[in-house]
Amino acid sequence: MNTKRPTLEDIASVAGVSRATVSLVVRQSPLVAEHTRLKVEKVMADLDYVRDIGAARLRNNSSRTVGVIVPNLVNSFFTEFLTGVEQVMREQDRVVLLANSEDDPRRQDEILQRFRGHGVDGMILCPAAGTDAALPGRMQRWGLPMVQALREVGAQETDYAGADYVAGVGLAMQHLTALGHRRIAFLSVRAMTSAKAERLKGFSMALAKSGAIDAGIIEADLTWEGAALAANAVLALPARPTAVLCFNDVLAAGLMLGLRRADRQPGREMAVVGLDDLPLAELTYPPMTSVAMCPARIGTEAARLLTRRLAEPGRPIERFIQFPTLMVRESSGTKIV
Amino acid sequence: MNTKRPTLEDIASVAGVSRATVSLVVRQSPLVAEHTRLKVEKVMADLDYVRDIGAARLRNNSSRTVGVIVPNLVNSFFTEFLTGVEQVMREQDRVVLLANSEDDPRRQDEILQRFRGHGVDGMILCPAAGTDAALPGRMQRWGLPMVQALREVGAQETDYAGADYVAGVGLAMQHLTALGHRRIAFLSVRAMTSAKAERLKGFSMALAKSGAIDAGIIEADLTWEGAALAANAVLALPARPTAVLCFNDVLAAGLMLGLRRADRQPGREMAVVGLDDLPLAELTYPPMTSVAMCPARIGTEAARLLTRRLAEPGRPIERFIQFPTLMVRESSGTKIV
DNA sequence: TCTGCGTTTTAGATCGTTCTAAGTTGCAGG
DNA sequence: CCTGCAACTTAGAACGATCTAAAACGCAGA
Prior knowledge:
By secondary structure, chain A is an alpha/beta fold. Chain A has helices at residues 8-15, 19-26, 34-47, 53-60, 76-91, 105-117, 135-142, 165-178, 194-210, 224-235, 249-261, 295-311; strands spanning 65-70, 95-100, 122-125, 146-149, 159-163, 183-189, 213-220, 243-246, 271-273, 290-292, 319-322, 325-327.
């Protein structure tokens, strides 16, 4: 019943060759003669041979395994990213070890140790909020190649794939000011990450450039419920904003819900703009103006950066920055007086 | 720079004991004397020892690795499920190998072989549409324990965790008929899975029980765009349905969008009910009546079923069926005449 | 001092693969 | 007939852990 998997030895003895020859066949070496190869492949197929990659790694030090750590698996920003990573890895015959740090640096450390123990060839890390800036250096000392994605800690010591959040916020702000908005609020999150820092930077840069007024920065939990609750705080801002730019689409959707609960029409009485352009942006009411960051594309690029680094460890640091696109829908309303 | 990780041998020589003793310490064996244990643990900490699980597996045949295959990583039904699985596995010090079959049985087979090669201890499989019913038997012959989740193929030969889709559809239909609807349509998907079969079964059972009329079954692509396009087909149904039950929330959201594009108010001119109660159900307009299936809970139960099976391979087949809950919001409208 | 027994420790084989270095072939050229 | 070389093939030692069986140690009792 629970029959053991055949090994190289088994194949070898049936095919009447040595273990080493079978190994060469498995690895598609050109050293082996055509007729031997065919004979061995036949036996492998008959016995349903599956190469033990763990044992192989022990000898040649390549597990064809990469670790991916994300802070969240519910937000589709991260799952689209993950889809991109997984797809490229699958094409390259690699396997993805997945874990969710829940934005907790301690958990993230545990996961890293565990992945290290499993012999991953490299890591794609979306660092948890509060990750020690020394982590990239530590991983380098471990000899564990890493690509950071979507967020970044440390002084640009590793490859990185992300989006230009500053520019993204700029596009959104430009859109709002062009519509005539002068008092703009920012609905942010509590957890501090490079992604948040960049967005805030983009916000103040855009304010400076356009001469619009910072109507206040509200912080909410990163859930739509949190954002819905924050609607009242936004409405209570003394500067009376006419538009709110949101950290991401989840918050924007929640905010619109909260506004409606407070009997304000998002898009008419208050312009709302999201960031990320998740699929849900088209399903909200009114459909949401947002800034597309293409997380799936960032995922494929992160995966490619990692495989390049694995192939050539000494190569210079590389960065992929996705330029965002503004998607105008209805939540930002029309030109105001 | 790229210093190799220390091995048991390294620890042993520094601590002045044998490799075997260090191995016992690593595995927290009670056989080792207190003072030796402390000494060895000190050295392990100093040298930053990480146990090589791959090498361990080679000898003792437990990789503490499980494979998870889902058909889709964008639909949050599956990612919530995945969150549940990952969490339990993390608590049990196991690692998750993730892959996306994209609902393609060929791809799924490739992934299974790859995971087999990586020596996974077991699998949690959400079988792709069109999966051969013989797969569970084949995996059993491989000696690869598996739990099916959310969907199922074969004759209940494996552990299974899922939701009671028949009952879920029943709840939704009961709600609609109680509101006075007599002509009800079903917006379905093209791909055939056990989940679809159960829902259709629930639909006809509920029709029979309530005496309502099957106003037609429309099939759409499993995207909200597909559902939006299907809105016209729904409106063109000769039976003129007053309510539509949808395969899941993604389709329901898309359908509502399509209805609005065709100038029909979902919830007023056409009742719409979804299944799954994804987070987006509260964000649509009007908020969506749906049936909660608690995929995260199903995920944790699937993980527990697998670890139980791994601990005790001979135990009888077990099934976990989550009972669904109706979440009434506004898209189903109010009582009609 | 020696025996016996329980507690700790260890040498050496082993898991399934890959690598190294050396071994076979077969055949053309001297 | 021998030599040299290309084209294959292979024995045996790794890799880093665990397991088995046995050895070393400590100590009480004779």
